[in-house]
Specification:
Helices cover 36% and strands 19% of the residues. It is an alpha/beta fold. It has one domain: LmbE-like (Rossmann fold, 3-Layer(aba) Sandwich), CATH 3.40.50.
Length: 232
């Protein structure tokens, strides 16, 4: 739709590329305003005492900005919920941050995590998004999608595995998705790790083969609200 406003609400820097890199590029090419919200630091879980080196944090933010530029993201915002400890934070605090972001951006389409992901931060963010986007009268959000994150979605319990309902063709954007992911030099791993450049490319080809396209990103439609037809 013309003039669409899109919000990508994720836990950590690099989640937006892994799950939605091609989809973001597509929205940007269509002239849609895309904004990304990162809720957790993405670093503290790697230190022994949970502290964060400010220089490392700024480096990660710089990587996120570089990836955003490649994909055509207009706005990014960082918050500092504890990495891999978001289950220690009141859900209401997360919901309020998301609600404020959605209101500021005017987003009508939301992309976020699969609630069944192994990563606890992903699950908390997914639940908070659904809570923040309750379809009360006057609510602006019309569509909500969940995406898959390699090294989290596929590691979930069998009954919580990601089962897509929607596919978006990204063959023309696969190189830009790869370049955006390469910005995260501290996050990507070597094959055969699932969070490697090769694994991401192979997943895109696999998802494409599931829907008759060269490459695709798979999504799970969580909610879609269609307005009433005009009486005039």
């Amino acid at each position: 739709m013309p003039g669409e406003r899109v919000a990508v609400v994720v836990a950590h820097p690099d989640d937006e590329v892994l799950a939605f890199g091609g989809t973001i590029c597509r929205h940007a090419e269509l002239g849609h305003l895309v904004s990304v919200l990162f809720l957790a630091t993405g670093l503290a879980a790697r230190s022994d005492n949970g502290t964060i080196d400010p220089a490392n944090l700024e480096s990660l933010h710089s990587e996120a900005r570089a990836a955003a530029d490649i994909m055509g993201v207009r706005k990014i915002e960082f918050h500092d919920f504890p990495d891999n400890r978001m289950d220690t934070v009141p859900l209401l605090d997360v919901v309020k941050r998301i609600s404020t972001f959605i209101e500021k951006t005017g987003a009508t389409v939301i992309y976020t995590h699969h609630i069944g992901d192994l990563n606890v931060d992903h699950a908390i963010v997914a639940r908070a998004v659904i809570t923040a986007c309750r379809p009360v009268p006057g609510a602006q959000v019309r569509r909500i999608y969940a995406g898959e994150i390699l090294s989290s979605s596929e590691y979930s319990l069998p009954q919580h595995r990601f089962l897509p309902t929607t596919y978006i063709g990204i063959d023309r954007y696969i190189d830009r998705k790869r370049d955006a992911l390469k910005c995260y030099s501290t996050e990507i791993r070597y094959w055969p790790h699932p969070r490697s450049i090769k694994a991401v490319a192979l997943l895109a080809r696999l998802r494409g083969s599931e829907c008759g396209m060269e490459a695709a990103e798979a999504l799970l439609l969580l909610r879609e609200i269609l307005p009433e037809l005009s009486k005039t």
